[in-house]
DNA sequence: GCGCATTAGTTGACACGACAACTAAACCCG
DNA sequence: CGGGTTTAGTTGTCGTGTCAACTAATGCGC
């Protein structure tokens, strides 16, 4: 089958999307590391735990909410545990499972990091867009996600 | 100053954008590695060279076109050079500069990889969007880039 | 209730990117 | 034209992610 090459509009959108994907993580990491000694991914892990009931989640559930593999999450949680921000304990209901719980120190870390992080998010993304574009971005990213992650492992729909 | 937290629409757009940013690179890498033994970044390097006059670019120019630091590019070009896909030579005009040139083998590699890559790009992004959304995405990503990269080191505007 | 497949998670080896230190050439300016 | 600054690029080290191999508990089928 002959390749359908990209036309100008498609190429333009693609090139720019790639640039965003390459540059955005670095910017988020840099700010969080500088101000709060956390990588962006570590922040995400702590933030997801902070919103969960009793601040506890099973590793698998946490991996899904952070778009990570279990292996990656396991390494990161080990480091966070060593820093006293998270605690692991075997799940009583299922012997195979592990629960990760946010400690008080972990809670303090997220609470401390959140304002600066939100400010960065506004600064580099949201404030650059109109209200309409923010809504569009939500829809576009949602559409892409259904292709990237057909099984919907990721962040479940609008509902939280 | 009190933090302006994100409202529902903003949070939705942000969470989804983060998910895209986390998942997209992996999908692109996986396809290219499987079918062409190239990482996405390596592909980008070769592709940018393939479009340049005489298939030659100075390292700095190549770094800008691929949104990479010079250090990262230098490592990657070393590997590509070891595989015979790229050649380095000192720039005659400027003794500090290095020119990277795409070899014939490198050309063959990009040409071989391009169709599968474009198909993936369509599959995971472009075909998930309407024509209008593709245009919107271009504008939104462009707006974000002016914040991520205020000096415009990155891909220059529509113009090539 | 035994055995095999599946699910949950961890771990170790390797690959790659970031950062900082370094070399070297060019520019600049008095 | 000589010394300091800037620009271009490379390299070594370290942190972090990926992959594959592994352990262990669960659940299904008969």
Automatic annotation (TrEMBL), chains A, B:
GO-annotated biological processes: response to stress
Gene3D superfamilies documented for this protein: Winged helix-like DNA-binding domain superfamily/Winged helix DNA-binding domain
Domain of life from the UniProt record: Bacteria
HTH marR-type domain boundaries: 1-146
GO molecular function: DNA-binding transcription factor activity
PANTHER family noted in UniProt: MARR FAMILY REGULATORY PROTEIN (PTHR33164:SF99), TRANSCRIPTIONAL REGULATOR, MARR FAMILY (PTHR33164)
Protein name, entry field: MarR family transcriptional regulator
């Amino acid at each position: 089958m002959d390749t359908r090459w990209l036309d100008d509009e498609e190429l333009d959108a693609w090139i720019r999307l790639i640039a965003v994907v390459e540059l955005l993580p670095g910017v988020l990491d840099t700010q969080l590391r500088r101000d709060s000694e956390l990588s962006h991914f570590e922040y995400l892990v702590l933030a997801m735990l902070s919103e969960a009931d009793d601040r506890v989640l099973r590793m698998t559930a946490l991996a899904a909410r952070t778009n990570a593999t279990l292996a990656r999450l396991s390494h990161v949680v080990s480091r966070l545990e060593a820093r006293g921000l998270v605690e692991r304990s075997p799940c009583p209901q299922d012997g195979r499972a592990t629960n990760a719980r946010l400690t008080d120190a972990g809670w303090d870390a997220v609470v401390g990091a959140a304002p600066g992080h939100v400010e960065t998010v506004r600064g580099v993304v949201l404030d650059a867009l109109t209200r309409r574009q923010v809504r569009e971005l939500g829809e576009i990213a949602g559409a892409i996600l259904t292709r990237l992650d057909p099984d919907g492992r990721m962040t479940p729909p609008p509902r939280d």
